[in-house]
Description:
Blueprint: E1 3-5, H1 14-18, E2 24-26, E3 31-33, H2 43-47, E4 53-55
Antiparallel strand pairs: 1-4, 2-3
The structure holds iron/sulfur cluster (SF4) (2 copies).
Amino acid sequence: MAYVISDECIACGACQAECPVEAISEGDGKFAIDPDLCTDCGSCAEVCAVEAIQPE
Ligand code: SF4
Ligand code: SF4
């Protein structure tokens, strides 16, 4: 289980600062979550303005 970032992502970067385990990185046009690092805390999903982050 991990959270995932959909194509709705507008690459604002807000979620990256919230992740306590630095699982979020900037990819090609959107941000991405490393499922091996994500602990399912949900902090990133709370700050996403476009609700692009959902539990897988
Ligand atoms: Fe990081 Fe938590 Fe979001 Fe996973 S759910 S990417 S651990 S902030
Ligand atoms: Fe993308 Fe949402 Fe993260 Fe902003 S907060 S980079 S829109 S996933």
